[in-house]
Amino acid sequence: MQTTAVRKPWYRVLYIQVLIAVALGILVGHFFPAFGKSLKPLGDGFIKLVKMMIAPIIFCTVVHGIASMGDLRKLGRTGAKALFYFEVVSTLALAIGLVVVNVLKPGVGFNIDPKTLDPSLGAATAQKAHAISTADFLLNIIPKTFMDAFVSGDLLQVLLVAILVAFAIAFMGERGKPLLQGIEYASQVFFGVMHIVVKVAPIGAFGAMGFTVGSYGLAALTPLLKLMGGFYLTAGLFVVVVLGGIAWWSGFSIFRFLVYIKDELLLVLGTSSSETALPGMIEKMQRLGCSKSTVGLVIPTGYSFNLDGTNIYMAMAAVFLAQATNTPLDLGQQISLMLIAMITSKGASGVTGAGFVTLAATLAVVPSIPIESLALLVGIDRFMSECRAVTNLIGNGVATVVISRWENEVTAETLNENLRWPVHLETSEPAAPARGIREVEES
User: Fold this and answer.
1) Cys-Cys link to 149, which of 125, 157, 281, 376 (CB 3.0-4.6 A)?
2) Closest residue by Cα to residue 211 from 19, 29, 389
3) DSSP classification of residue 69
4) Alpha carbon of 119 to those of 19, 64, 125, 148, 370: distances in Å?
């Protein structure tokens, strides 16, 4: 007996609601800037609502996925494949950013004298950036207490605690099964809360966009539109060509995948934060047929180690500032810049204004580019951060599917079938995706 799927009215579809809210936010911010600035609490409040659910959702997903895995050696194999994939693709993103900015030369002709810029911003940001060292980053993965991982909101701390708990439950054998069942029930509760929270996403997107446009305006962006346009173009080409090629090699279409995660993409676009879409991405990747252990490991880790959009931004922005201040950078210096950025970008997830601060960390190690020149990017950083976050989100989603395919968790046929359903119908419950999950759990 077949169940007839009911198509939602267009005004109840989340991504359409978010699109309308973003458009209204832009109009309000442009024509009523003072009122637009006052909308900031709406965006901040929504982001806080989402962030409060991220830690428990990741904890439950990772613990249940790993502890219920029959072969724990698969965890090490999956983790090694993920880190290898992250490093290769992230390096490729940096290299593409360097090539494009050298071809377009968006900063040539600005002739900015760093002495005329406000040195306080560069000094403050540089001080914040210097606090990010490799040792501090590694030590920061270890929380002060067990519960501190959930209080701090650091994804890698939550991941570490979840992995340790998962191994402890796995070693308990049969005695650990009741705990696993309890964690599964808790996971359903947390996802249920998230489904309630996401319903107010349009309000959050409206407030965030209204504040952004009201604070910085659209006319003030004109002198820097070339850099913004180049960055958006590069990120788009990276998604279509690089990630699209990887997706094709893995047996699925990048365009169908983008349609599948359209709600999360528009959520990120409206809030400029990729964390707001993290719970939704975890759920949708599982619906595609990826195992809970792979999803729970790859996505949170990718938020620190697979920041494709941030890497493109850092490469382009650093060379742009050198061009704008007439600072010569030869090929060797640019390669050194790329190697430094590969390290500094790894600490981006736990830092407020991650892309901007990690850029400062990179410039702090390359003294030839004046740190004061960061002031040039303040007005457009919020608009750049939207593209960074969207590109990062797509990159982590593709990485999850690719690694799941490497692990033979889902076939190309099942994957494409599960991707095809949301294209044609907006159903009240995911009929086809559920089949992919059952196939993985039974295998």
Assistant:
1) 157
2) 29
3) -
4) 38, 50, 10, 36, 10
Q: What is the DSSP letter of 243?
A: I
Mean pLDDT is lowest, of 85-99, 341-355, 414-428, for 341-355
Q: Could you write out the three-class secondary structure of 249-297?
A: HHCCCHHHHHHHCHHHHHHHHHHCCHHHHHHHHHHHHHHHCCCHHHHHH
Q: In a 10 Å sphere around its CB, with 0-12 CB exposed, 13-18 middle and 19+ buried, how is residue 226 labelled?
A: middle
pLDDT tens per residue across span 3-17: 444 566 766 777 678
- Name the region of 133 (left: φ>0; alpha: ψ -120 to 50; beta: rest): beta
Handedness of CA 88, 89, 94, 95 (dihedral sign): positive
pLDDT at 254: 93
Q: Are 54 and 279 in contact (CB under 8 A)?
A: yes
Evaluate whether 211 touches 36 at the Cβ level (below 8 Å): yes
CA-nearest of 312, 257, 256, 316 to 103 is: 316
DSSP string for residues in 143-157: -SSTTHHHHH--HHH
Rounded Cα distance between 339 and 344, Å, is 9
Amino acid at 329: L
Give me the domains of the chain, ranges plus CATH numbers.
19-442 (1.10.3860.10)
CA 363-364-368 angle, to 5 degrees, is 65
Which residue's entry shows tokens 């007839």? 4
Find tokens 């501190």 and name the residue: 148
The widest CA-to-CA distance across the chain, in whole angstroms, is 75
Tokens coding 345: 């970008």
CB atoms within 10 A of CB 382: 18
DSSP states along 217-242: -SGGGGGGHHHHHHHHHHHHHIIIII
